[in-house]
Amino acid sequence: DDLYTDIVGDFERDIGRELRALFARLTEQVAAGVLPSKLQVSATDERELLRVHRTYLDRVFRFGAEGARDELQRLGASHLPVFVGALDMGYAEMTVFDYIAERAFFATRMLTEEMVSALRAALLAGLRDEKTVEQITAEALRALEPLIPEEPVPGRSEITPARLATAVRTVTTDMFNTARRSVFEAPELNGFVEAYKYDAVLDARTTEI
């Protein structure tokens, strides 16, 4: 669907922009002589990354839920669920907003820890080998090349690095599927959806079991 593709593309662009800015601020700490163990992401930077994640995960959830409702309507379901924001996660009930917040937190933490770890490793090696701040920054950037996109160039499409694309698509796919499941399993349907069919391309990572 074009809208879903647009949401994911916007998500990749905005997260990429935040990661570039975060890397720049972390390298300022390196230039200021901060030791590897003291490198850290500021609360402001973490909040901004969380905000971007929550904004897009909310959009994906709403898109997935509306799509599921449309499918049920086409299939003739007599009582379409009125979404009120509750999810049965198997062990506890939580609101959609709780789940989005949790998913955003862990997605943000994963990206920030990956970036800080790469910078710490480059800084530690740089201290050992007496490298300049510029050399340390360049080595960290090379290590993070699959995650941090290059600065956009006017007239040229942005290329999303593979690691960043995987991170974004993992959380959006999870949120999209969660939204659909929350609609299909709503009590108002009285078991209208009886089962799911799992469909996968068989390759080296999948089996028929």
Keywords, separated by commas or semicolons:
3% strand, 63% helix, 209 residues, mainly alpha, two-stranded antiparallel sheet
Report the mean per-residue pLDDT as an integer.
88
Sheet-strand content, in percent, reads under 5%
Please give the order of strands in the largest beta sheet: 1-2
Radius of gyration: 21 Å
How many alpha or pi helices?
5
What's the β-strand tally? Answer: 2
Unreliable spans: none
- In this structure, how is the largest beta sheet organized? 2 strands, antiparallel
Give the terminus-to-terminus CA distance: 30 Å
Helix content: 55-70%
What does this structure look like?
The protein is an all-alpha fold and 209 residues long. It contains five helices and two strands; from the N terminus they run H-H-E-E-H-H-H. It has helices spanning 2-31, 43-75, 96-129, 133-143, 162-184; strands at 86-88, 93-95. It has a two-stranded antiparallel sheet. The longest helix has 34 residues, at 96-129. The chain is elongated, with a radius of gyration of 21 Å. It starts with a helix and ends in a 25-residue tail after the last helix. The model has no long low-confidence stretch (mean pLDDT 88).
Helix and strand arrangement:
Elements: H1 2-31, H2 43-75, E1 86-88, E2 93-95, H3 96-129, H4 133-143, H5 162-184
Antiparallel strand pairs: 1-2
Helix pairs in contact: 1-2, 1-3, 1-5, 2-3, 2-5, 3-4
